[in-house]
C-alpha cells in the first residue's frame, strides 16, 4: 500500500461489527424538533450527539413558511452551511442586517461564526425548505434584538479561486 501521509488505520470494529454503530439512516419522519429554535422557522435535528453520537457535526432541516422571516440570531463559534432544497432564501446579515443576498434550489449558503443573520422566505406562496449542517454536535442559537437598516446592500459572491 503506498504511503500518502494519511493514517488509514482504525480501531477494531466494535463487538457488533459496526452493525448498530456504523452507518445510520435517519428516516425523514423521525427528525427531532426538540432543538434550539428561532422565531419564524422550524428546525428539526437529524444528526447530533444525542441521536447518533456525532462528535463534530449537527445536521437537520429548516423550514420557513411562505412570506415569513426569522428573528435575528447567530450560532456562536459554529460554522453553518445551508443547502436550499426548494423555495427562495433571502439572507440578511451584519451588525444591522445591512447586507443581503438570495439563494435558490441547489444553492449553498455559508454562515461564519458569530455573524448576526436573518433568513427570509422571499416567496409568498411557497415554503422555503433547507438542509442545515453545523460544525459541532450541539445546536447553538443566540437570538438577538437588532434594529435592521431599512435598505440593505446587495452582495454578490466573488469566488476567490475561480476569478473572472
Secondary-structure-based class equals: mainly beta
Shape: globular
Give, in order, the helices and strands: EHEEEEEEEEEE
Mind telling me the C-alpha Rg? 19 Å
Number of strands: 11
Helix content: under 10%
Query: Which CATH class of one domain is shown?
Result: Mainly Beta
Q: Identify the CATH homologous superfamily of one domain.
A: Jelly Rolls
Percent of residues in β-strands: 25-35%
The overall average pLDDT, rounded, is: 88
Quaternary organisation: single chain
Report the uncertain regions.
none
Number of helices: 1
**Order of strands across the main sheet:** 1-2-9-4-7
Largest sheet: 5 strands, antiparallel
Furnish the topology, listing elements before pairings:
Layout: E1 42-47, H1 49-52, E2 58-64, E3 73-74, E4 80-86, E5 89-93, E6 99-103, E7 108-111, E8 117-121, E9 128-134, E10 142-143, E11 153-154
Parallel strand pairs: 6-11
Antiparallel strand pairs: 1-2, 2-9, 3-10, 4-7, 4-9, 5-6, 5-8
Amino acid at each position: 500500500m503506498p504511503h500518502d501521509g494519511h493514517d488509514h488505520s482504525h480501531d477494531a470494529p466494535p463487538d457488533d461489527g459496526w452493525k448498530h454503530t456504523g452507518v445510520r439512516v435517519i428516516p425523514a419522519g423521525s427528525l427531532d424538533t426538540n432543538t434550539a429554535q428561532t422565531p419564524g422557522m422550524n428546525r428539526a435535528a437529524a444528526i447530533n450527539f444525542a441521536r447518533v453520537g456525532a462528535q463534530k457535526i449537527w445536521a437537520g432541516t429548516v423550514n420557513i413558511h411562505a412570506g415569513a422571516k426569522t428573528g435575528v440570531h447567530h450560532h456562536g463559534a459554529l460554522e453553518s452551511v445551508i443547502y436550499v432544497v426548494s423555495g427562495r432564501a433571502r439572507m440578511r446579515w451584519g451588525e444591522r442586517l445591512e447586507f443581503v443576498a438570495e439563494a435558490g434550489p441547489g444553492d449553498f449558503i455559508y454562515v461564519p461564526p458569530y455573524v448576526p443573520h436573518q433568513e427570509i422566505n422571499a416567496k409568498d406562496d411557497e415554503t422555503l425548505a433547507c438542509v442545515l449542517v453545523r460544525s459541532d454536535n450541539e445546536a447553538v442559537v443566540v437570538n438577538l434584538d437588532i434594529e435592521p437598516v431599512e435598505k440593505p446592500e446587495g452582495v454578490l459572491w466573488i469566488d476567490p479561486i475561480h476569478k473572472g
